[in-house]
Specification:
Blueprint lengths: L7 H36 L22 H27 L5 H22 L7 H14 L4
Helix pairs in contact: 1-2
Family: Belongs to the AIM11 family.
Subcellular location: Membrane
Keywords: Membrane, Transmembrane, Transmembrane helix
Length: about 140
C-alpha cells in the first residue's frame, strides 16, 4: 500500500530497485550458507578403514583459525538473513527510503496510539508517587 501513487514509470523503477536489493541480499545469504557448509564439511574428521575413530586427530595449522572463521561466517549469515528480511519487507510495502518508512510507520501507529490513550484511564497520583517524582526532578535538575 504505497504512500502516494507514483507515476507508472517511476513505480516500475522503484519496484525494480527494491527487487534487486532483495535479490542481492539473498545471493549474499546463499553465498555465506554455501561457504559455511563447505567449511564445516572440510573440518570433519573422517577416519579411513583401519584408523581408530576414538583417537583425537592431530592438530594442524588450519584448526588454529576455527574461531575467526566461525565469527566471519556467522556474521555473514546473520547479516545476509537480516538484510533479506529488511529488504523483503520494504519490497512488499513499497518502501524505498527511511523517510517513507517513518511516514508509513506513523500512519499505521497513530490510530493505534489514540485507541490506547482512550482505553487507559488517567492515573491518580498518590503521596508516594509525587514524592518520588519530586526527588527524581531534584536529582536530574540542571542548574546553569
Amino acid at each position: 500500500m504505497p504512500l502516494n501513487e507514483p507515476p507508472a514509470d517511476d513505480r516500475k523503477f522503484r519496484r525494480g530497485k527494491e527487487m534487486s536489493r532483495f535479490f542481492v541480499s539473498t545471493a549474499l545469504t546463499l553465498f555465506f550458507s554455501k561457504l559455511t557448509h563447505r567449511t564445516i564439511s572440510m573440518m570433519k574428521y573422517r577416519p579411513t578403514t583401519f584408523q581408530a575413530n576414538h583417537v583425537i586427530p592431530p592438530m594442524n595449522s588450519s584448526t588454529k583459525l576455527i574461531a575467526p572463521q566461525a565469527v566471519a561466517l556467522s556474521t555473514g549469515l546473520s547479516a545476509g538473513f537480516f538484510s533479506m528480511v529488511v529488504f523483503g519487507t520494504c519490497w512488499i510495502f513499497d518502501i524505498n527510503s527511511v523517510q517513507e518508512f517513518t511516514l508509513g510507520f506513523k500512519r499505521v501507529l497513530s490510530p493505534l496510539s489514540e485507541r490506547i490513550a482512550n482505553k487507559v484511564p488517567p492515573m491518580e497520583d498518590d503521596e508516594a508517587t509525587s514524592e518520588l517524582e519530586n526527588e527524581l526532578k531534584d536529582l536530574f535538575k540542571t542548574d546553569k
